[in-house]
Amino acid sequence: MPLGTRAGAFVRRHRLAPYLLLAPALAGIALVLLWPLAQVLIFSFQNYGLPQITGAAPTQWVGQANFAATLADPEFWLSLRITVLFAAVAVPLTLIAGTVVGLLLNRLGKKMAAFVSTAALLAWATPPVSASVLFYWLFNPDGGLVDWTLSKLPHALVGSTDWAGFNWTTTGALQAYTVLTMLVVWQAFPFIAVTTLAGLKTVPAELYEAARVDGAGPWRVFWKITYPLLKPIFLVLLLLSVIWDFNVFTQTYILTGFPGNRDEFNLALYMYDKAFGFPPSYGLGGALAVIFTVILLVITVGYVRSSVRQGALT
Amino acid sequence: MTSTGITGTGTTAAGQAIARTRTARGRAAATRRAKTMSLNGFGLLVALVTLFPIFWMVSTAFKPSQEIYSLTPSLLPSHPTVGNFSQVISGQVSGIGSVFLFFRNSLTVTLATVLLASLLSLLASVAVARFRFRFRAAFLIMLLIVQMIPGQALIIALFLDFNRLNLLENLTGLIIVYAAQALPVSIWMLRNFVATVPRELEEAAAIDGASPARIFWRILFPLVAPGLVATSIFAFITAYNEFIVALTFLGQAHSTYTLPIYVTYFFGRGGAQWGPIMAASTLYTIPVMIFFLIVRRRLVGGLVAGAVKG
């Protein structure tokens, strides 16, 4: 019996086929996702840093010292507050903008809808690095278009701030995150709009006809028909937006000119600074990664539960 | 204005009713027209506001520097120039090389990621969709949870591990990380496509004496090809845009930079070379825009299914 056939028989007898098919993918996921996750968990209870890597000092278990140090650091609380406040503003704005554009696309004529959705598609396609550099330039105090426009508008409209040369990115967290909010909404609304539109196409037109005959206005139609029918989609979009806005790294890294202004760190920047700043502390970084992951997993549980309820595991 | 309410001698009740519906219809048509106009106006506004930043990027890229820093900026360059682009291509402003070098790096990483992720996720999705085995449900739940782990949380361990494996400062390390990161979503999407291929087709081929490998390539593969397109789109975008892993892994090895790291380096060098920087971002952005326009139909279904990754 040739070797290949014998191996085939062995695989069949022990029902190994699914495990063999899974093995390469599982190896990749284990190497890049599961094992690092375990390591980060281990680091978070150790004093792991540069001296430990070079062997100058032994690696020691330090119990929950890294977590205690993190929770005692005012910079941690500031970055957490910035992260939560930013999400609290950016998530609703993104969802509202996206839903409005989705509803609009559903009502527009063919040509106009194609034009608007192409515009949205291009904003969506812009890579985060390009978009961040571009918004930095738009809001630049030195030749940026926004400051120039604001300085030309009457004071009654834009306040008495001297807008010419106004620095958006280093003045403070509020200014920097205002720019970030516009950037994130600009990049994320197309996805919401397109998803909402796909959902709207599944709503039978008769429902809207009937509502219109009964004299319901657009506001009422949205809350009585569209919203209840698209609720599962909106729920997923809400969870995804929260997760994305908690995770923002690329855009904050570029807009705040990392490691520029420490008062403008969000959680992701704070964590990166602890791990790779000077001196690098993988222990503190690990503790932060654990805290960060736990926060996101709590949100994720909602996502998994709604997926399971919709029968995604069958 | 309207005839409603007028009760003249010559007007019958029926005539009144007809007149009423006619004017009502006329009014309805007028409001409908006004509504369409305002909808179109709103649509136009949305499209222009959305397009403006992109327009400004391209416009700046074609402006000579005295126009970029002019006290009264103009929308379009009055003396358009390709000087910024030639500076980016010659590599003299960034000081680390021509944009083509970084373009080639990005292209290599992206294509290798797409191929590797497609192959591994196809095999795994066949296992999940075609077989019942122990830990199947556990594996699926693991995928769902693992895809939500923020990339930043793992970057510390990845950096140390790949340092030990000697895979920092080269493209291979990036390809492995990107492909593995794309797997959970890709498997999750592909298994639905595999599940819809009728089992009878495979069984019939098996009865005809086709080997499992032949069944896989001749029957299953062509039928799940659309699914592979969807997962490839996802892997492509992830790899082309990825920032934090490339930033951490590539360090100071300029010649291995991918496009986003090159643009960031260029930007962070200071000196406010906005013309060349916008030219570089334009060159980085245009290919992915074209890609989005080509795959736009598949984009919606594919990315909605696998949208969980940021």
Provide the fold topology:
The complex is a heterodimer of chains A (314) and B (310).
Chain A: H1 3-13, H2 17-43, H3 50-54, H4 65-71, H5 74-107, H6 110-125, H7 128-138, H8 145-152, H9 155-158, H10 173-200, H11 205-213, H12 218-247, H13 250-255, H14 267-276, H15 282-309
Chain B: H1 13-61, H2 65-68, H3 83-90, H4 99-130, H5 136-146, H6 151-164, H7 171-196, H8 199-207, H9 212-241, H10 244-250, H11 259-268, H12 274-294, H13 296-305
Helix pairs in contact in B: 1-12, 3-12, 4-7, 4-9, 5-7, 6-10, 7-9, 7-10, 8-9, 9-13, 11-12
Keywords:
heterodimer, A: 314 residues, mainly alpha, MetI-like fold, B: 310 residues, 2 domains, 13 helices, disordered N terminus, disordered C terminus
Annotation field: number of helices of chain B: 13
Total strand segments of chain B: 0
Give the helix level of chain B as a range of percent.
Answer: over 70%
Class from helix and strand fractions of chain A: mainly alpha
In DSSP terms, counting alpha (H) and pi (I) runs of 4 or more, how many helices of chain A? 15
Short structural description:
The complex is a heterodimer of chains A (314) and B (310). Chain A has 314 residues and is an all-alpha fold.
Q: How would you describe this structure to a colleague?
A:
The complex is a heterodimer of chains A (314) and B (310). Chain A has 15 helices and no strands. Chain A has 314 residues and is mostly helical. Chain A has a single domain (65-309), classed as MetI-like fold (Orthogonal Bundle), CATH 1.10.3720. In chain A, helix 5 runs antiparallel to helix 6 (110-125). The longest helix of chain A is centred in the N-terminal third of the chain and has 34 residues, at 74-107. The two termini of chain A are 39 Å apart. Chain B is mainly α. Chain B has two domains: 13-61; 85-305, MetI-like (MetI-like fold, Orthogonal Bundle). Chain B has helices at residues 13-61, 65-68, 83-90, 99-130, 136-146, 151-164, 171-196, 199-207, 212-241, 244-250, 259-268, 274-294, 296-305. In chain B, helix 7 (171-196) crosses helix 9, helix 7 runs antiparallel to helix 10 (244-250) and helix 11 (259-268) packs antiparallel against helix 12 (274-294). The termini of chain B are far apart. The interface between A and B is large, with 91 and 96 residues.
